[in-house]
Amino acid sequence: MALIFLDESMNELNGKPIRTMHNGSTGGANESMFFVRNRREDVFYRNIFLTPVFDNDYYEYEDFEISKWSVKLHYGTVQPSEDEWDQIESGQYLKMPDIGTIEGSDTFTNYPIWVRTYCPGLTPSQIKKNIGIQLEYKEEKVRV
Fold first, then answer.
1. What is the distance between the alpha carbons of residues 74 and 83, in angstroms, rounded to a whole number?
2. Cα 126 to Cα 56: distance, rounded to the nearest angstrom
């Protein structure tokens, strides 16, 4: 796969989780930014969707409604306001702009994604490993 995730320091995540910390007693939200980037010069990407998901390989089935955890995604360089976050449903997919065109790839732009993870109050201490981001896209060859 040529689309990669980068952390805020522009280090490749290489499958590493995006880490957040929460006060389980009071609950609360944590916001951070990561980036999506193309590293192949011969392809471009369209119909790019990111969806926060629970990876059920780690735990028994759970979803956002049952667990009361919340994960929201927002595209852009500016940190979203509370009103903007309120417009996004937990677990809702994010449609990204195309990366490159048929005339040429884009291997230099870092596409910014904000992620907001909410932990409900009275949550026991844990390392929650089952929250992930599903990436879907259409990869096409650049016209030479």
1. 12
2. 16
73-130: per-residue pLDDT in tens? Answer: 999 999 999 999 999 998 899 999 999 999 999 999 999 999 999 988 888 877 777 7
| Length of the chain (residues) | 144
Give the other-Cβ count within 10 Å of 80's Cβ. 18
The per-residue pLDDT for 48 is 97
* Three-state helix/strand/coil letters over 28-85: EEEEEEEEEEECCCCEEEEEEEEEEEECCCCCCCCCHHHHCCEEEEEECCCCCCHHHH
* CA distances in angstroms from 120 to 15, 18, 22, 116, 128, listed in the order given: 26, 18, 9, 13, 13
Q: What gap in Å lies between CA 89 and CA 66, rounded to an integer?
A: 14
Instruction: Grade residue 58 by pLDDT with cuts at 50, 70 and 90.
Output: very low
